[in-house]
């Protein structure tokens, strides 16, 4: 049974039982404690906690959630069941059915016949676990379902009490396992062997709230949830592994094609006979290709921190594994294409994003291959050095420091270094390497510790994020009365602050816009009586909490106090102009370049905006002009700017450009300008109608990193200022040249033409003048050893080029004699010199090159050329006369 069908059967089973089918949320949900969505229940958290009412008709839902867990990335390919990306299918009850309902539903689907839409699993092969004292669950399994008592096992907190690992909903759980048979391990149920007995479904009886604590087993239960809920998670990939009768989760219909592709590209083979290491690498390639692709699909791009770093690490592990398997060049394109093919039936949105996904992946691969190349160079040099230094008999060892440098600076994983060392007949000092790694880890830890005391640790904001999200009033008003509900100084909570303090203020409501969606935060003030705080920045924690960074410039402020919060009006005016202008430019850009020009980022502040987008080619001046024209026409059309609050689904149907990180059922805000002209999901502040933006002047475009380009523009008065500065400049030039501005281009062309002619003329005159001089110089030539010899110092400022002109001229005049000409001059700090010899002189053995070489020694310079003419340059003018004398005595000696 194909994975796609397993998904369908799951959903149908629960829809038939009245559950609302909810699409998967993005992998990136807004939770300060969560890098990626890692369980099916994450998007439903507020319903479990009773913070929001579930919007599902029967109070039940079902979903197949995309999940990423990268904690045990090193386990991938080693065990048979660890995927970094997996699909968690779940059914959820919010205060509706509880243990019995969950157990009955699960059993019916697993053991139901194929004809009836079930998975047709043999009940004899299913085992279950329950929490230590959960007799209620045990009774249901034994008495209602009929699972024999010896196939029901009890496990403790670590295994059978589920929480998110952080404060939130939690409860005891019951897990269902499938016995894969004796060839997979020892008898004795899940407590004996979790490889043979594979966990497939976890039923969580979500009834309590968890407090602070460590890990899975050691936390406090704060109290019961408002209602008893159900959260279940079935691993789609594991069920596929069983139903497709394959050995492990990397060989299912979704991932196996990637392994096949890797076999073709690397020349190595996968499977039973192959080395264990190789098999692991194949599985890593398959697993990471899918996770990487799905992350890019949801908007992650490689970087050096956070989510981007995980993606980078995954992609690099693929490249490295392929290389270790024998691939010579790039491979990601084939892997990505294959995995996109297998995943598209379940995720049709991949089809629209293929090009973008490939671009992101291939750019990263290219960069990494380059890194590998320079690392390989370093490695080769080290090997070369070792070969030259160590004696033949002793084993050659690459130092731990070198291996660490390769790892640290070039991103060389140690196994790659080991492999390469092995090929080169070397050993690697692993103790030294581990020591260097340990040292680095200690440093990183200390660094993290330091950050914790700064502001990087967001958990301090947790209570407000969960309980007192900020109400934003700034769409409607610029001044609001508010209450101080949080105060922080130096990253610590305080109850009062006083004059001169740099503080963070949390209000129950605020009109100040927090930096988001590229729009910079509002500037403004908080005041009450004598007290005044200047707000320099406002940042959001998660999507819900506004934190004002302010300086207390007068008076003091207490927790609980009432204040007036006021936006700086001028600032806001400029900011909305720039932000609305950004939307227009985005729309214009897509009209001109087509839909593949996808937004990659933007920034707008009063008067200025920049817009980054994915596009591989440089824009032509005509394209830029067109974008600027369309933008300003849209300003001129004075489109009404409407904001519509609607559901994500509705917004997508309207054609609004989708954003990442939105969730099913989320209310989103669509900003519309001119109907279909511009529709964007956006939380920013905007003008009321586009004419209020004022002029938009596009400054130009440039490249920002691989595959991305940037347009910059001024808006409003700043656009006017820019134009008037340009105009003043042009008018100044036209006054200077005494022509009308429209005649400027022609005039400048004329002038350039004239200048060129004048320069030619000057050159001509100079040559003529030098030619005249040549006769004068020649008069000073003397006879040495049957040669006519001329050594002359030309006036200061004569260049090497001029020397050549004169020397050529003189040489022409003494064609029939055995003549030697040597000229030198002082030209700034340089001392150019030249030697020329007539044919008759050459016939007697004179070589101009010899002459310049000899002379060069006296003026501190070098030179060279042909026998008939050679030139050089030195730096010591004081040696010129001595050099001439030396030349003369040389000619004497010939
Ligand atoms: N939340 C549980 C899990 O992640 C069941 O969905 O395993």
From TrEMBL:
<dbReference type="InterPro" id="IPR023033">
    <property type="entry name" value="Ala_tRNA_ligase_euk/bac"/>
</dbReference>
<dbReference type="GO" id="GO:0006419">
    <property type="term" value="P:alanyl-tRNA aminoacylation"/>
</dbReference>
<keyword id="KW-0963">Cytoplasm</keyword>
<dbReference type="Pfam" id="PF02272">
    <property type="entry name" value="DHHA1"/>
</dbReference>
<dbReference type="Pfam" id="PF07973">
    <property type="entry name" value="tRNA_SAD"/>
</dbReference>
<keyword id="KW-0067">ATP-binding</keyword>
<keyword id="KW-0030">Aminoacyl-tRNA synthetase</keyword>
<feature type="domain" description="Alanyl-transfer RNA synthetases family profile">
    <location>
        <begin position="1"/>
        <end position="725"/>
    </location>
</feature>
<dbReference type="GO" id="GO:0000049">
    <property type="term" value="F:tRNA binding"/>
</dbReference>
<keyword id="KW-0547">Nucleotide-binding</keyword>
<dbReference type="GO" id="GO:0002161">
    <property type="term" value="F:aminoacyl-tRNA deacylase activity"/>
</dbReference>
<dbReference type="GO" id="GO:0005524">
    <property type="term" value="F:ATP binding"/>
</dbReference>
<dbReference type="Pfam" id="PF01411">
    <property type="entry name" value="tRNA-synt_2c"/>
</dbReference>
<keyword id="KW-0862">Zinc</keyword>
<dbReference type="InterPro" id="IPR003156">
    <property type="entry name" value="DHHA1_dom"/>
</dbReference>
<keyword id="KW-0175">Coiled coil</keyword>
<dbReference type="InterPro" id="IPR018162">
    <property type="entry name" value="Ala-tRNA-ligase_IIc_anticod-bd"/>
</dbReference>
<feature type="binding site">
    <location>
        <position position="686"/>
    </location>
    <ligand>
        <name>Zn(2+)</name>
    </ligand>
</feature>
<keyword id="KW-0479">Metal-binding</keyword>
<dbReference type="InterPro" id="IPR050058">
    <property type="entry name" value="Ala-tRNA_ligase"/>
</dbReference>
<dbReference type="InterPro" id="IPR018165">
    <property type="entry name" value="Ala-tRNA-synth_IIc_core"/>
</dbReference>
<dbReference type="InterPro" id="IPR045864">
    <property type="entry name" value="aa-tRNA-synth_II/BPL/LPL"/>
</dbReference>
<comment type="similarity">
    <text>Belongs to the class-II aminoacyl-tRNA synthetase family.</text>
</comment>
<keyword id="KW-0820">tRNA-binding</keyword>
<dbReference type="InterPro" id="IPR009000">
    <property type="entry name" value="Transl_B-barrel_sf"/>
</dbReference>
<keyword id="KW-0436">Ligase</keyword>
<dbReference type="InterPro" id="IPR018163">
    <property type="entry name" value="Thr/Ala-tRNA-synth_IIc_edit"/>
</dbReference>
<comment type="function">
    <text>Catalyzes the attachment of alanine to tRNA(Ala) in a two-step reaction: alanine is first activated by ATP to form Ala-AMP and then transferred to the acceptor end of tRNA(Ala). Also edits incorrectly charged Ser-tRNA(Ala) and Gly-tRNA(Ala) via its editing domain.</text>
</comment>
<dbReference type="InterPro" id="IPR018164">
    <property type="entry name" value="Ala-tRNA-synth_IIc_N"/>
</dbReference>
<dbReference type="InterPro" id="IPR002318">
    <property type="entry name" value="Ala-tRNA-lgiase_IIc"/>
</dbReference>
<dbReference type="GO" id="GO:0005829">
    <property type="term" value="C:cytosol"/>
</dbReference>
<dbReference type="GO" id="GO:0004813">
    <property type="term" value="F:alanine-tRNA ligase activity"/>
</dbReference>
<dbReference type="InterPro" id="IPR012947">
    <property type="entry name" value="tRNA_SAD"/>
</dbReference>
<protein>
    <recommendedName>
        <fullName>Alanine--tRNA ligase</fullName>
        <ecNumber>6.1.1.7</ecNumber>
    </recommendedName>
</protein>
<keyword id="KW-0648">Protein biosynthesis</keyword>
<feature type="binding site">
    <location>
        <position position="583"/>
    </location>
    <ligand>
        <name>Zn(2+)</name>
    </ligand>
</feature>
<feature type="coiled-coil region">
    <location>
        <begin position="741"/>
        <end position="768"/>
    </location>
</feature>
<feature type="binding site">
    <location>
        <position position="579"/>
    </location>
    <ligand>
        <name>Zn(2+)</name>
    </ligand>
</feature>
<keyword id="KW-0694">RNA-binding</keyword>
<feature type="binding site">
    <location>
        <position position="682"/>
    </location>
    <ligand>
        <name>Zn(2+)</name>
    </ligand>
</feature>
<dbReference type="GO" id="GO:0008270">
    <property type="term" value="F:zinc ion binding"/>
</dbReference>
